[in-house]
Amino acid sequence: MLRSLFSGISGLRAHQQMMDVTGNNIANVNTTGYKSSQAVFQDTLSQMLAAAGAPQNQAGGTNPAQVGLGVRMASINGNFSQGAAQVTGKSSDMMIQGDGFFVVRADGEELFTRAGSFTFDANGTLTTPNGQVVQGWTATNGVVNSAGAPADIVLPIGISLAPVATTEITLTGNFSYEALPGDIKEIPIKVIDTNGAAQSMVATFTKVDADTWQMDLPDGSTANIDFNADGTAALASQTVGGYTFDTAALTNFSGLTEARVSNSNGSGAGVLSTYTVSNTGQIVGVFSNGLKETLGQIALANFNNVNGLEKIGDSMFRSTVNSGLAQIGAAGTAGFGMVTSGALEMSNVDLAQEFTNLVIAQRGFQANSRILTTSDEILQELVNLKR
């Protein structure tokens, strides 16, 4: 039987597999986070007809004579280049710019994906469209420990922040050096009490002498604001009536008295109203009182050999013995890209290249089919010799 028949069959099979790979790429041109694949061929066994001969004194050497026995699929390599961004405006949609994979849990198994189309379910758990749970770290008092083992990301629905009473007040501006003793400056101050209610009080400042103003609070507490000869405050801060006043920015220059409150701490009670996701994957809760607090952080994974990952469907990958163990870390650290919220990574399929591959596979299939028909014609001629 002719060897060319079997070579042709192997060529048909290989190009059919190339067609399968190319067709799958084109089918997933709009699949979120999809990474295209490339078929790689290599020749199969070559039969030795004559071995190589060494050069002799009176004759040159001879090269080996071999006949190849066809082609086979050597590997199907993944293309993990960055896909384009599709802006969605949805905070729970995320894409990775750079290296890394999102980590999800399904039936106790860790899986990995570049498709960041996530949503929070009724329990506040961050999940994929198929219900796999996104992994990361939950914050404790606003602090994330990314060195620990990742777990389910759960947004604490209904969480509230207790009121924080005002304890620090910052004063800034100028007390006029030219003011006369007895001159008064009243400064309104808004504070938050221990119940979270906003209160207003007026601090009265009275000029005592050239370098001193006396501060009086409504509760009867009092203190002197002293200035140095160069017009700067003598003390950076002092505590009066249970409040710590930052006076470092006060001055005692000529001109108008325009001292005022520039800042104060304290806040009323607040409930979680929305959230944002930072480029390091931190989920930051925004509360109704205007305060923000870190609630958790998305975990990322990377591998020594991403081409060793196994595709298992649902835009998921599984680690294998050839991918290496998953290296878990936070976005923005060494070996990991950044997270963009409100966007998804589109498929990285290059349609121009895939249509070209389609033509190449088709012509390769046709050429190999000609090997079969030509070999068949030769065999038919041999059969006809008997006639």
Automatic annotation (TrEMBL):
Keyword Repeat included in the entry's annotation: no
Classification via SUPFAM superfamilies: Flagellar hook protein flgE (SSF117143)
Keywords linked to the UniProt accession: Bacterial flagellum, Cell projection, Cilium, Flagellum
Cell compartment(s), UniProt: Bacterial flagellum basal body
Residue ranges constituting the Flagellar basal-body/hook protein C-terminal domain according to the UniProt record: 341-385
GO BP annotations, alphabetical order: bacterial-type flagellum-dependent swarming motility
Signal peptide (residue range): none
Source organism superkingdom: Bacteria
Domain Flagellar basal body rod protein N-terminal, residue spans: 8-35
Gene Ontology CC annotation, any one: bacterial-type flagellum hook
InterPro entries, sorted: Flag_bb_rod_N, Flagellar_FlgE/F/G, Flg_bb/hook_C_dom, FlgE/F/G-like, LlgE_F_G-like_D1
Ribosomal protein in keyword set: no
Flagellar hook protein FlgE/F/G-like D1 domain: residues covered: 95-157
Main subcellular location of this protein, as a coarse class: other
Pfam families from the UniProt entry: Flg_bb_rod, Flg_bbr_C, LlgE_F_G_D1
UniProt family annotation: Belongs to the flagella basal body rod proteins family.
Its job: A flexible structure which links the flagellar filament to the drive apparatus in the basal body.
NCBIfam families with a match to the protein in the record: FlgEFG_subfam
Protein name as catalogued: Flagellar hook protein FlgE
UniProt organism field: Mangrovihabitans endophyticus
